[in-house]
């Protein structure tokens, strides 16, 4: 059984989805950079070891990342799953875990890398928005894409209502992606391309607003 470590900073709804999905892997630890992250309670309720490494205890990103890597390596994970982990990781850290470090981002990457994705999507008037699970590379939010989900943007959406619909799809695609990774159905090849053993694409089109 593959082992994963999950990194969080906040409420942990993606963590909750992963822990409830009965994935074919062992979650060996949940690590937060914030002691008050709600997700730590969720992990404890599932009987999972929790750890806090506060970035405030370190002089710079590099020393924080070194401490984080040391803690992670103690669990010997096959994958490190970022689930709302709100620290930018150094290239040194990321390169150490290429092919093992996975992230979920609340936009259809490469659109809206970075923060405040829902606000920016609404400001731009896009009609379709969504979320992306990808391998992490040093190029922030631009690593090889594993799976995406699209949602229609409603005329009366606020950043909160749009975020809620996207979040619900995040839970779907993150559990699917981690299941694929843990069963070896998705891999990253030497050329940095995502490979699937049985890729099913249904050819559906999302048009928004609807055609008459
Ligand atoms: C999610 O929207 C995720 O895509 C982003 O941070 C948020 C975390 O939410 N990286 P939660 O803590 O999983 O509820």
Would you summarize the structure shown here?
The chain has 212 residues and is an alpha/beta fold. The chain is built from 6 helices and 9 strands; from the N terminus they run E-H-E-H-E-H-E-H-E-H-E-E-H-E-E.
| Secondary-structure element order, N to C | EHEHEHEHEHEEHEE
Q: Cα-atom Rg, whole angstroms?
A: 17 Å
CATH topology: Rossmann fold
DSSP E strands, number: 9
Distance between the termini: 50 Å
Topology:
Layout: E1 2-8, H1 13-20, E2 25-32, H2 39-45, E3 50-52, H3 61-73, E4 79-82, H4 91-96, E5 101-105, H5 117-124, E6 128-135, E7 145-152, H6 159-182, E8 186-188, E9 194-196
Helix pairs in contact: 1-6
Bound molecules: 5-O-phosphono-beta-D-ribofuranosylamine.
Q: How would you describe the overall organization of this protein?
A:
With 212 residues, the protein is α/β, with parallel strands linked by helices. The protein is built from 6 helices and 9 strands. The protein has one domain: Formyl transferase, N-terminal domain (Rossmann fold). Helix content is 31%, strand content 23%. The longest helix is centred in the C-terminal third of the chain and has 24 residues, at 159-182. It is globular, with a radius of gyration of 17 Å. The chain starts with a strand and ends in a 16-residue tail after the last strand. Bound molecules: 5-O-phosphono-beta-D-ribofuranosylamine. 5-O-phosphono-beta-D-ribofuranosylamine binds next to helix 1, strand 5 and helix 6.
